[in-house]
Structures
1.
Amino acid sequence: MMLLDYMISALGLVLVAIVLWRGSRQSLLRHYPFFYSYLGYVFALHILALWGAQLRLPGYALVFWWGSAVAALLRFFVVWEVFRQSFSPLQPIRQIAGQAAAFLVTGLAVAVFLGSDKLSSLYRAESFFPDLERKLGLIQASLLLTCLFLARYYAIPLGRNIWGLALGLGIYLSISVMNFSALELIDSFLPFWRYIRPLSFIGMAGLWTWALWSYAPNPQPTASPEVERHGLERWRNAWGEARTAVRRVVGL
Amino acid sequence: MNQLLLLLVAGVVLFVLFLVLSLTGRPRMSPDPHRLAELERIVPLNGLVFNQAEVLLNPRDYQMLRSHVGLQRVARELRRDRRNIVLLWLKLLREDILNLWRFRRLLVRGGAPAGLAEEFRVAATSILLLGFLLSLRVVVAVAGPFAVPQLIQLAKRQAENAYQISAELLRRLPAGRLAEVESQWATRARAGP
């Protein structure tokens, strides 16, 4: 590893550590447990990667790539965090958004995994991991984009936390998809790819640092006085009916 | 190869869409209609209440008059009148922006919570919008009322955004402080800018 590689890795690690530190100080971990599980794993993986590269451990590369593959799968945790925070279980829109997401995942998974040019490439180690990154990245970025578009379409207000989280990961994933596709398409791209990914990761971690500096949840709409009055009237009527029913049953 | 190319294109499209989303900003809580009405009651917004901008900026009747040889003088008069009305309207919009900005400062002083970044953004947007309105006035004075209708509409939309942002801040004002802020605003309005 060159000095520049170390510096880029260290900067990414520092930013992730800051996000984790702020998360624990501001009690964000209990609000966004799925996101912080992913981030904790990435932090541990980063430390292992730096340590392994330093000691030149045998089998380091394979462990690193498998670790990265698990991190790629864990990114679904972040997507789920964005989804569950944006669409509350009490809102009917959650069902629509859930159906749209399920349809999108199924469609994209069928298109990218089964419609592959050469399925045999999946079993070759050197192309397996970039292929997984590309395909999972495409599905996850599309899911995030769908969440953000649905939130905009239905005018669901998003807080700084979820907005920054979704935008940061979305931009990082789209760069990752471009990067891993260009890598195999254009040979001359090779010197750049090893910097683009970590630098975009630093961009994402920087955006997350800003977004998750303090707790800024999605604003909850407040009921207007008319709605509250209407709710109270309904409750009174229901309670009156219940009392009448009980009196009738006990014969009063 | 084909799939790689498709994925590359998909990556570029996703990247552009995320950038567009980041530039348009996150969806925010739409201001309570009660607050909008309250704001309108406290701060008179003479430019923003005008909702016939499309008619004012539409050149069709002017073009129709100009196409008749005998009506060209009437067409010129119509154009001049329209230009004066557009200039007056742009001036009123400018006053609205200044009033909303002043009122916002009063709200923050009155206890409405606002961060430094938000204050900076509002100040920068207001200054840019005031500059934009001034340039539009110059363009309309020189090139006529029908030269840049889209830009004038854009300025109106931005002024409406400023109005909604102020209404949102009004919502955050601590309970019981509105009467005090309102009376301070009335005193200021009587004293003049």
2.
Amino acid sequence: MKDISVSIPKVDNLEKTSGSALYVNDYDMEGMLYAKTLRSTISKGKIKEIEIPYLPFGYEIVDYKDVPGQNIVKVIFDDMPVFAKNEVTYKGEPILLIVGEDKVVIDEILKQIKVIYIEETPTYEWKNSCCHYHFTKGNPISVFNMASRVITYDYETGYQEQAYIEPQGFLGYPEGKKITLIGSIQCPYYVKNAVIMALGVPFDEVRIIQASVGGAFGGKEEFPSLIGCQLAVAVAKIQKPIKLIYEREEDMISSTKRHPSKITMSAAINDKKELIGIKAKVGIDAGATIGLSGVVLSRALIASTGAYTIPNLEVNGDVYLTNTVPNGAFRGFGAPQMLFAIEMFMEHIAKDLSEDPFLYRLKYLAKQGDPTSTNGLFRDPIIMKQMIEKAMVVSDYSKKIKEFSTDNSFRGIGMSWFLHGCGFTGSGESTHIHAKVKLRKDKQNKVHILIAAVDMGQGVKTTMRKVVSDILNLPIDQVIYNNPDTDFVPDSGPTVASRTMMIVGGLVARCALQLKEKWIDLEEIICEENYSQPDYIKWDESTFTGDAYPAYSWGVNVVEVKVNKATYMTDIAGVWSVYDLGKAIDERIVLGQADGGIAQGIAYGYLEVMEVKNGKIMQKNFTDYMIPTASDVGQMETYIMDNPYPLGPYGAKGVGELTLVGGAPAVAKAIENAINRKVLKIPATPELIMELIENGKH
Amino acid sequence: MANINFKLNGEFVSIEANPGQRLLDVLRNEFKLTGVKEGCGEGECGACAVLINNEIVNSCSIPLANIDGSEIITIEGFSKTKQFEVLQHSFEEEGAVQCGFCTPGMIIASESLLHKNPHPTTEEIKIGLSGNLCRCTGYNMIIKAVQKASKDGDGLW
């Protein structure tokens, strides 16, 4: 039998290279209208009055008064209105839609609408905590009391914009009593459940269909539920097809981003220079609504000791509400912020103790059988030592770090070690998601994969078909996997949290085995599988105790840079990565995830700047929000180590997020090495590097 | 309104339209050529790239008036060529396609590059593709795909 990792051509290559794949904006319908959003121009205040001009025939306003169900977008914490009612809480908040057949006329109407506000004082400081978590491991109080030295550093991370190349959008239309939406989405059932609540209709009166998705990275996880609800309300009112596609600027100023963070780390050190305890205090900026910020925070907190085992730990975290654009899901989901902090901190502790950072970190590297940060257990083999060794050999790390540390060449090399918990945090899978998958064999012996997982470029259409065709020994074109349509597929959960192959793929594989047993030629057979948590996984959400994740993927990133001595611009000279993701279902697809993930992770660390001034997002397009171009990325080498996870399909664990989370600390360490100053903040822009060279600590 | 004549994917076309419209909108709405994508609307991302008289141009930044008498090739037209076949195959082999939204523009950019420089160096490929943004791949696989196409399609360009 062929190894499952051996790559096959992606099933959607031709439709994408030839331009025939249909994204939401490529759909057209007879009599279709367009919609555009009127947004708040102030950060906080009451809406006193809205002056609507004379509307030409066929043009309509849709606002909160038209919402037949609840004027709330169902996310996780439900505090975002579908349309602003009496008040606005951030610049860019949607107030109403204008709907009509000509976009030019819509723009004219938009310009003429006057909103009269009673302005209130907005809050931009991080002082209103809406969510506080706290947990401990071991006895942090006593180790900090008896410490011979305490080392403390403050770390800071900025915004990051997902910058999918296809902006947000939906097309909605009535189908009898039903409202149907085609959209650029990661989570068909998130949108469906949100729309049901906003419309106040029964389950079968909302249908969500996924169009080809032009990139998402978390940006199309919960945010599309907001637009979906608004458009569904408009379609319910007007009873015609309506298209709502964001322009880039609108997308950037109003959609969710990665949470900025401020993290204070303290280490208790004994008289043998041993690290005996850590305290982490983590703050993230939610923006104006909570949404899923609490879940983002908890993933960050659980990652507070990164790839290390620290016996005593105290963790405090807060989500702060500010009058700024709400932040949300972005590949890594809280982990990139925390892994930047802990990876830099371990380096900084060692430096302050005059210890070799590499050897010092190695002493605390987690091993199989160690307790996790939440007193769960690392059950499965951890092969980080081999991975680190591999990364050092291929990057020539030892020689370079020695050379760059002394030669004043402004070249630098950095190595990050990290893990990523696969799947939902805590008991999310078993208590909230209840994933269900189906396979249907038709009378022509074709097998249809019925799941709600979305291919947004990560290749799941190919990998899922590969799994089923391998188990059933069918040619790949006998296995069908269409874009999910909630009228035909069960809720296998959202396409998030690096859960798709490990959890959904695991269920699909079990379902295929079941079908194999029941197989009768030329008869229709339907098989179904439901998720159940392994008994040994125990998690107490109230105390953050137990196994926060069923499994962990691991990684090592090495980044080499050259900082320009005159401009302080950083060039990426090379990138080497080694990953343990269990087992690659398709090697080339995993390598593609690896390249793309680390490009985003590195750019988060040194390139991508997004700022908010007085509640206003300052970067509005790719002209001022820089993402890497082909000229910015260095040569990348990736090595995948097999370390099969017993419950994953073929041993697979999570991939997508793992490849991003280590990029920022690796590049930040490389810059630190190049300029011989401690980097405490990302992105490490030329301005920051200049400041560090003038005033930074060695 | 004005009457604009041009050659589109090998056929002469004539259209009575507002000459100030973006070429992108005309191609997508009037000719249903939806392989031409809108990513940014400001000429930064290259998703809307087309060939005008063999030069790569972002169709979001060109008013219809400017293309009177020109020859335009979009991904739909280009996908019927031998050169496309080579590029399609090399993109597939190297894993250069993920979400696919930038891909038609990337293919057009690759064609534009190889047309002028059939054997580009890595550095020349990077520069040739730097007007097209991709957020999924980190570019390396696309760069390798262009290298492969250059080799496999030797003599075609």
